[in-house]
Design brief:
The complex is a heterodimer of chains A (about 140) and B (about 90).
Chain A: H1 2-30, H2 34-65, H3 70-102, H4 114-135
Helix pairs in contact in A: 1-2, 2-3
Chain B: H1 3-26, H2 30-55, H3 59-83
Classes of the chains: A mainly alpha (about 140), B mainly alpha (about 90).
Chain lengths: ~140, ~90
């Protein structure tokens, strides 16, 4: 009885995970510029992998409950892999976005670009500082 | 048992890898290709965990952890290279 319910939960998590991972793939193919592609390709795959690995964790805990200690090892190592994904994926996406902006790839159809405004302001301030130094 | 369903999931994830690979081949700019590579890396990590669960071999999941950290390092280095700054 309880085993059947756990199996259905695992199936549900697998379906959610595969759906969001494939959605990330479709987004990375269809979106128009780098930043929107990054949005799809990172967020959707991270969310999908959370659910896929959680289903494996539940499977491992179930085999552990049935008396096989291999299940606990499977569950704990899967959780460590999940933590590794959760720590590294958003950081990598942030680095790619900053690198793309600095290498000159600007967002298409963007109305507001706060990072560009900030950089321009900093450059203006540096220029005025240099000018005042030269005047003195 | 559940192995059949996990194999179907792996097949669908392989389709996701192929789609991201199309973006790597097509991508107009270099950051596009890096985004595709990052997506492929994430899906490969999840596939390794699923393989470990199917064959009940825990060492595959350890390989997935190391692969995650190494792909993170490689992504950071490529981003630094695109930025053009000094290290």
């Amino acid at each position: 009885m309880i085993g059947t319910i756990i199996n259905y939960i695992v199936y549900l998590f697998l379906v959610i995970g595969v759906f969001f991972t494939l959605l990330g793939g479709v987004g990375i193919l269809r979106f128009p510029d780098v930043y929107t592609r990054l949005h799809a390709g990172t967020k959707c795959t991270t969310f999908g992998s959370i659910f896929l690995i959680l289903s494996i964790v539940i499977l491992g805990l179930k085999t552990w409950h049935l008396g096989d200690t291999d299940g606990s090892v499977l569950a704990i190592h899967s959780i460590i892999a999940l933590i590794a994904i959760l720590l590294t994926n958003p950081t990598g996406a942030h680095a790619i976005a900053r690198a793309a902006h600095r290498s000159g790839v600007m967002p298409i159809d963007a109305v507001v670009d706060r990072l560009k405004e900030k950089n321009d302001k900093n450059q203006d301030r540096k220029k005025t500082e240099v000018d005042t130094l030269e005047d003195e | 048992m559940i192995e059949t369903e996990l194999f179907i999931v792996l097949l669908l994830l392989f389709i996701g890898i192929v789609i991201a690979g199309i973006r790597i081949l097509k991508g107009p700019t270099a950051p596009d290709r890096v985004v595709g590579l990052d997506t492929v890396n994430t899906i490969v990590i999840v596939s390794m965990v699923l393989f470990g669960a199917i064959y009940n071999v825990v060492i595959y999941i350890d390989v997935a952890i190391v692969y995650a950290l190494l792909s993170f390092i490689s992504t950071l280095f490529i981003a630094k290279y695109l930025e053009g700054g000094d290290f």
